[in-house]
Amino acid sequence: MKFKPSPPTAAAQSLSSSDTRLLVRETLRISANLALAPPISTDVSATERPFSKDARFGGVIEDQFLDSSLRLICCEEIGGRRWQYFAEGNNAVRGGDSMKLKSSIRAVSLQSSQAPVDELIGFIRSYVVPEGFPHSVAPSYVPYMTWRALKHFFGGAMGVFTTQTLLSSLGVSRNKSGAGAVAINWILKDGAGRVGKMIFSRQGRKFDYDLKQLRFSGDLLMELGAGIELATAAFPSLFLPMACVANVAKNVSAVTSTSTRTPIYKAFAKGENIGDVTAKGECVANIADLLGTGLSIMISKRNPSLFNTFALLSCGYLMSSYQEVRSVVLHTLNRARFTVAVESYLKTGRVPSLQDGNLQENIFSPPWTKKKPIVLGPRFKDAFQDPNSYLAVKPIFEKEQYIVTYNPSRGNVYALLKDQAKSDDILKAAFHAHLLLHTICTSNKKESSSRKREHDLSGIMLSPRDIQIRIAESYKMVSALYGSFADKAKEQGWGMSEALLNPGRARICELAG
């Protein structure tokens, strides 16, 4: 007898479908763990997805992680935006004939992207107000800048008509439209220079941190602009674009000169006479400028070689500029002077005097140079290769407001700062980073002696265990040496109350309970 099979119920269909999905998912997971694929990159950026709250992760996280087994290891804040870092599941990696399990780091942003209007406002603020505004300036700053902006607005509008009138008076063209066209081209040239000046002003506090390096770089740009202006004689058809580029370079140079002038004069003033020192300094500069102008007029009457004359004068200008910035003695510790002080202390036990430290400062190292052996205030994902490298050194720095580590894959020493780090904590973190760098280099003398550049860590591969040991040893050394270094630096006149080391903005935050 044949029985007609009864149709499956809806519950049975749902159960079968659920079991099938579970079986497929588990099969794929096991296959992925057994595969010999490389570990997932630690530099994973989170894409924008809907967010929801969950107390296990201390705040807002992505929906896709609510049911995952990711382990929260660190929280970071940079520029008001918060990130969380999770230790991802184990990945199978072949090591010789054995299999090793290695975890990776996933970064998750806790905020969705800003509205276009907010991004535009933030972009404009980065150009027109100082960092930390309004808390970083006096209350009178806003009305002063408002009236100053109005003054320059009317002055710029008036300049178009005065330039046109001057060109007409010189007989540039009897046709009024011709004079107007020449005047507009001239104004466009000056306008391009002002745009370049505005863009470069975003450097902000770099003028405080590395004023010598920026001052000399600005003088280099001044000579570059002068050279381009000179080249317009050979390419008259390209006068306007070449003149615009030259004016941009010269206006950027003007920004660096204006922004660094006051701190330099302040270093010379011994009382409340900075206004007098500034006025007399500018008077000397104007007298020298007039004498140079008179000399050039006399020389030009003999029709000398334009190229040879420009080359000779440029060499004199740059040599004088270099000696000018080297002669300035500053008592603050920026990156370059701090490096000189720490290296001298670690090698000789002495901190150089203000005069010696400033003379040894590297002027040819502008702040935008990316290749540096020590990174202060980096992102978490740049400093650590995997979660284990962070969890191994984290207990060492429980009582400190920073964490120092070495990433062999990048060849850099990283000093991460916690959100409560003060000026002295930043100085101590930088000192520890230099000490760790010194320890690694001296313990690899054969490798480092064959390198072309001092403190070049590329190629020095240390095991995670070796890194942990050297960090622990350096921590003990810092506990014994940093106090002595700070005292000797104060004795020599270096200011230790405020750090001008220009750290990155990233800060490690406490995890929510």
Question: What can be said about this structure in brief?
Answer:
With 513 residues, the chain is α+β, with helices and mostly antiparallel strands. Helix content is 55%, strand content 11%. The strands form four sheets. Strands 7-4-3-11 form a four-stranded antiparallel β-sheet, with no helix packed on it. A three-stranded mixed β-sheet has the order 8-10-9. It has a two-stranded antiparallel ribbon with strand order 1-2.
Characterise this structure.
The longest helix is centred in the middle third of the chain and has 30 residues, at 239-268. The chain has 513 residues and is α+β, with helices and mostly antiparallel strands. It is built from 16 helices and 11 strands. Strands 7-4-3-11 form a 4-stranded antiparallel beta sheet, with no helix packed on it. A hairpin with a 2-residue loop joins strand 3 (71-78) and strand 4 (81-87). Helix 14 (423-443) crosses helix 16. The model is unreliable at 1-17, 30-67, 92-101 and 448-452 (pLDDT under 50). It starts with 9 loop residues before the first helix and ends with a strand. The chain is globular.
